[in-house]
Design goal:
The chain has about 850 residues and is α+β, with helices and mostly antiparallel strands. About 35% of the residues lie in helices and about 15% in strands. The longest helix has about 50 residues, at about 280-325.
Length: about 850
C-alpha cells in the first residue's frame, strides 16, 4: 500500500469543487467510480458537501497556501479490501496527518490494475477555522502505511525512497508515457565506456560518438543530446558526478575540438524496448500525432478568425448605435442613459464572444490534443487493435491479476462474441462489462472484479474457454471455486479442471443432475444446461410407459424454470384408452373424453411459409417442424371451463426412429374444423390481457372490467413477446424500433439517474420527446447490443434509439454540433446532411 500527497503546481489552481468533480466523474466508464464517502460534513449529498467545504474555506481570510489537500492511497494489484477496511484505513491515515476532524470526500476508483482511493481534504478546520499543513507528510505516510500493512495483512511495499528526485521523474515518464528517457538510454548505450575513460578528451570522444555533449551546469555536470534533452550526469550514475570525475580525470575540461563524422548512435524520442517490435506502430502513432497537430492548428486559426470577425461586428454595431444617438434629439440624463446602455450591450456581446471562443478552443484541443505513446496505445486497444494491446502488455512483465482468477490452457474455440469492452489499462488489462460487475483479462488469466455475481463468473468462464483453452485452473477462495464449478455445470461447457478435487466435484454434479449427458445441440447451436438460456430439464423415464429416456432438444423462447415440461411421449399422440387422469400441478382437474376433439390424431396440411424446424414459444403453436399447423385454433370451451390440461401438438418423429402406428396411417386430408388446434395462453395488446387467475377458465362477461372489454384479436402467427412495462406509451413518430431498443434506452436512463441520485455530477437523462429548445449532439452509447443517441437540450440529455448506419455517421460529427430531429424521424446536424435512422 502506498499513500502520497498529490500537490498542485500552483495553489491558485487548486479548487475543491474542480477536484471533487474530477474524482466523481465516471468518464463514461462502468468500472471507474466506486464508493463515495462524505466525512465530517453536515450535508448528505455531494454538491451540498462541496458547497459546505468552500464556505468553510472562505471563513479563513489569513491562510495564503493551498487550502485543499489531495491524498492518493493505492493498493497492490490483486488486493481488494472490503469497504469497512477501506474506511478504517482512510480514517487512520487522516488521523496520522492531523486531518482526522477535517471535512473530506473520498472516492474509490477501479479503472486501473490497482485499486486506489482519492481523498479531497479541506485544510481549514470546520470549527476552529485553523489552517493545517502536514509537515513532511511523506515520512508520516510511510510510517503509517507500513503499520497498516501488518495489521490488515496487505502486501508490503518499500516505503524508503531509493531514487533521487530526477531519477524518479525519469522513471515516472517511462511508466506513464512509455518513452525511453535519456537517463536509461545513456545507461544502456555508453555508461560502460564512460566509466573506462582515462582523460577528458576520451570522455568527449565517447559522448560525441553517441551524439552527446557534457558541460558544466550550475554546481554539477549535465549531459545533453542533439535534440536538446538534458540529464544530470550524477543522475545517470553517482560515479559521473563532477566531484567523482575530477578526482579521477582532473579538473573539468570542456571539449576544445569539434568532432567530425556522424555519431554511431543518437538518442531519439522512441518507445522503451520490449519483447514486441513496435516500429510500425510508433510510425503510425507519429503520423496520427502530426496530422492531429496540423488539424488543431488549422481549426484554432479558423476559430480565432471567427472570433475576431465577431468582435469587429460588435464594435461596428456599437459605432452605428453611437452615431445614431449623436443625431437624435435629446439632452441631459436621457442621452447619457442611452450611451450607457449601448456600452453595456457592447460589453455583454464581447463577453459572450470570448466565452464561446474559449469553449470552442477547449473542444478543439480535446478532440485533436497530443496524446502520449501509452495513451495512444490504450485508445487503439480499446477499439480492438490486437497489435496495440500486445504492445501494452509487453510494457509490464509482472503478473497484474491475482486473487480470484481463472486461467485456461489447451485448445481454444475462438467462437462467440465477447462482452463489451469498458476500458483498457496501461498495463494491457482489458476490462469487460458484465452487468453490475466486470471481468478483467491480462492476457494470461481472467479475474472477476468487485461483486462476483453469477453472470460475471459465467462470462469469465466462457471467455477463458473461448480465448485460451478448455483446461481450466482456478485460484481464489473456496466460495469462488464452487461458483466456477457450478457455472461450468450450468453452461454445459466441455472443459476439464486441472485441480482433481474440482474436477471430481464437477463430474459428481454432472452425474447427479444429468445422468444421460447434456442435450445435443441443434446445427449451429451450442449445447447448454438448464440454467443457460432457460432450457427444459431432462425428464426421467417412466418404466410403465415402455419408453427410454430421451434428451430434450433445445427450444428458443423456452418457458420459465418450473413450468410444466412437454409430455413424455412427445413424438406422438396417445389414444385416450392409454390415458388415466391427466392432472395439472396446481390441482386435480380432469380432461374428460368428451372434451377432446375427434380429429386430434389428424395431422392436416403443411403451411408453405412455415419454418423448417420445430419452434416452441410460450403462448404460441409449434412451427412446421412439429406438426405444421400454421394457425392455432382455440381449445374447446368445455376444456377451458374445467381448467383441463390442453393437449399439445404432436412432434415430427426423429429421423432414426420408425413412426408410431398412429402416425403411419392417417387420412390424406381432414376438415378444417377437425384439425388438432390447441392454443396456449396468448399475450394480446395492452388492456386485453386477462389476469393470471383467468388463464385456465372463461369468465362471464359481467365479471370483466368495462375498460378491458372488446374483441380480442388472435393472429395466426406466434404472438410477439409483451413489451416491457418501462416502454409502455413511448414511441417516436416516424420510427420503428423493437421493444428491446426502447428497453435499452430506459435501462441507460435508469443507470445515469441512479448515479445522479448518489450525488455524482451527471446531467438529467430522460426519454426523447419533441419539444422547444435547440438540440446538440452529445454522443452515442451501446447498451445490450442496442445503439442509442444522446441529444442535449438545455440542462438535460435526451436518449433515443438509432441504427448502426446512423451511429457510424454520428461518430464523424463533433460533440456539441447542433442537431435537429425532423418530422420524418431523421437527425439533421449542423453539416446540413440528414442522418436517417
Amino acid at each position: 500500500m502506498i499513500a502520497k500527497h498529490v500537490a498542485m503546481r500552483s495553489p491558485s489552481r487548486s479548487s475543491m469543487a474542480d477536484l471533487v468533480s474530477y474524482l466523481s466523474d465516471d468518464q463514461g466508464l462502468h468500472e471507474r467510480v466506486g464508493d463515495i464517502r462524505i466525512t465530517n460534513c453536515a450535508s448528505a449529498t455531494l454538491d451540498a458537501a462541496v458547497a459546505e467545504m468552500l464556505a468553510t474555506q472562505q471563513l479563513n481570510t489569513r491562510a495564503k497556501g493551498d487550502r485543499t489537500y489531495h491524498l492518493l492511497v493505492s493498493f497492490q494489484a490483486g488486493e481488494q479490501p472490503t469497504p469497512e477496511q477501506l474506511q478504517a484505513i482512510e480514517q487512520r491515515i487522516c488521523d496520522a496527518l492531523g486531518l482526522g476532524e477535517h471535512q473530506r470526500v473520498s472516492v474509490v476508483h477501479h479503472d486501473t490494475d490497482n485499486l486506489h482511493i482519492h481523498l479531497a481534504i479541506n485544510k481549514i478546520h470546520p470549527r476552529r477555522l485553523t489552517f493545517k499543513e502536514p509537515f513532511q507528510s511523506y515520512r508520516t505516510l510511510a510510517r503509517v502505511c507500513a503499520k497498516l500493512e501488518r495489521e490488515f495483512g496487505l502486501k508490503a511495499d518499500n516505503h524508503t525512497p531509493r531514487r533521487s528526485t530526477a531519477e524518479g521523474r525519469a522513471a515516472d515518464m517511462e511508466q506513464h508515457a512509455g518513452i525511453e528517457s535519456l537517463m536509461s538510454w545513456v545507461r544502456r548505450e555508453c555508461l560502460a565506456d564512460m566509466q573506462r575513460v582515462g582523460s577528458w578528451a576520451e570522455m568527449h570522444e565517447v559522448l560525441a560518438a553517441h551524439g552527446l555533449r557534457i558541460h558544466e551546469r550550475g554546481a554539477g555536470l549535465s549531459i545533453e543530446a542533439d535534440d536538446g534533452t538534458r540529464v544530470r550526469a550524477s543522475t545517470v550514475d553517482r560515479g559521473l558526478s563532477k566531484q567523482s570525475l575530477e578526482e579521477r580525470l582532473g579538473r573539468f575540461q570542456a571539449s576544445s575540438a569539434s568532432h567530425t563524422g556522424h555519431p554511431r548512435k543518437t538518442y531519439a524520442y522512441r518507445p522503451k524496448r520490449t519483447r514486441v517490435d513496435t516500429t510500425e506502430l510508433f510510425a503510425r502513432y507519429q503520423r496520427e500525432r502530426d496530422s492531429a497537430y496540423e488539424t488543431r492548428v488549422a481549426e484554432l486559426a479558423a476559430a480565432k478568425r471567427s472570433k475576431d470577425l465577431a468582435v469587429e461586428n460588435a464594435h461596428r454595431v456599437y459605432r452605428l448605435h453611437a452615431a445614431t444617438l449623436r443625431v437624435v434629439d435629446g439632452r441631459g440624463i436621457d442621452k447619457r442613459l442611452l450611451y450607457a446602455q449601448a456600452s453595456r450591450n457592447l460589453k455583454n456581446k464581447l463577453r459572450e464572444i470570448h466565452e464561446d471562443y474559449g469553449r470552442q478552443r477547449q473542444r478543439i484541443v480535446a478532440a485533436h490534443g497530443r496524446r502520449a505513446w501509452a495513451d495512444w496505445l490504450k485508445s487503439q486497444a480499446t477499439k480492438g487493435d490486437a497489435e496495440a494491446l500486445a504492445a501494452l502488455r509487453a510494457r509490464s512483465e509482472a503478473e497484474n491479476l491475482h486473487g480470484a482468477t481463472i486461467r485456461a490452457a489447451g485448445q481454444a474455440t475462438g467462437v462467440g462474441a465477447a462482452p463489451d469492452i469498458d476500458t483498457v489499462t496501461k498495463a494491457g488489462t482489458v476490462v469487460y462489462r458484465t452487468g453490475s460487475s466486470a471481468v478483467r483479462d491480462d492476457g494470461q488469466r481472467l479475474q472477476v472484479s468487485r461483486e462476483a455475481d453469477k453472470e460475471a463468473v459465467r462470462a469469465a468462464l466462457r471467455l477463458a474457454r473461448q480465448q485460451y483453452g478448455d483446461r481450466i485452473t482456478v485460484t481464489g477462495s473456496i466460495q469462488f471455486k464452487a461458483a466456477v464449478v457450478r457455472a461450468a455445470v450450468d453452461l454445459g461447457l466441455p472443459i476439464t479442471f486441472t485441480d482433481p478435487g474440482l474436477e471430481r466435484h464437477r463430474q459428481v454434479l454432472m452425474q447427479k443432475e444429468y445422468p444421460n449427458g447434456y442435450p445435443q445441440p441443434e446445427p449451429g447451436r451450442r449445447a447448454a444446461g438448464p440454467r443457460d438460456g432457460g432450457l427444459h430439464r431432462q425428464r426421467p423415464a417412466n418404466p410403465a410407459s415402455g419408453h427410454a429416456r430421451r434428451a430434450v432438444q433445445p427450444k428458443p423462447d423456452a418457458r420459465r424454470a418450473g413450468a410444466e415440461p412437454p409430455p413424455r411421449a412427445s413424438d406422438r399422440l396417445r389414444n385416450l384408452s392409454e390415458l388415466g387422469v391427466v392432472r395439472q400441478r396446481q390441482g386435480g382437474q380432469e380432461l374428460l373424453p368428451g372434451d377432446v376433439r375427434g380429429g386430434v390424431e389428424h395431422e392436416g396440411t403443411q403451411r408453405a411459409d412455415a419454418v423448417r424446424r420445430s419452434i416452441h414459444r410460450p403462448g404460441g403453436s409449434r412451427g412446421s417442424g412439429g406438426r405444421g399447423r400454421g394457425v392455432s385454433q382455440p381449445p374447446p370451451p368445455v376444456a377451458r371451463a374445467r381448467g383441463a390440461v390442453q393437449a399439445k401438438p404432436a412432434r415430427r418423429p426423429p429421423l432414426d426412429k420408425t413412426p408410431p402406428p398412429q402416425a403411419r396411417v392417417r387420412p390424406q386430408a381432414a376438415p378444417q374444423a377437425q384439425r388438432a388446434t390447441v392454443e396456449k395462453p396468448r399475450v394480446a395488446k395492452v388492456g386485453t390481457k386477462p389476469p393470471p387467475g383467468a388463464a385456465v377458465r372463461l369468465r362471464p362477461l359481467s365479471a370483466v372490467d368495462p375498460g378491458q372489454r372488446g374483441p380480442v384479436t388472435r393472429t395466426p402467427a406466434s404472438p410477439a413477446a409483451p413489451a416491457p412495462a418501462a416502454t409502455a406509451g413511448w414511441s417516436i413518430p416516424g420510427a420503428i424500433f423493437s421493444p428491446a431498443a426502447y428497453t435499452a434506452a430506459d435501462k441507460y436512463i435508469a443507470e445515469r439517474e441512479s448515479k445522479r441520485a448518489r450525488g455524482l455530477d451527471v446531467p438529467r437523462h430522460t426519454r426523447y420527446t419533441a419539444g422547444a429548445g435547440p438540440l446538440t449532439y452529445a454522443g452515442t452509447r451501446t447498451v445490450d447490443g442496442q445503439l442509442l443517441a444522446l441529444l442535449k437540450r438545455g440542462d438535460e440529455v435526451l436518449v433515443m434509439p438509432i441504427d448502426a448506419t446512423t451511429a457510424q455517421r454520428l461518430a464523424r460529427t463533433g460533440l456539441g454540433t447542433p442537431a435537429k430531429v425532423n418530422a420524418n424521424a431523421t437527425i439533421s446536424t449542423g453539416t446540413g446532411r440528414g442522418l436517417s435512422r
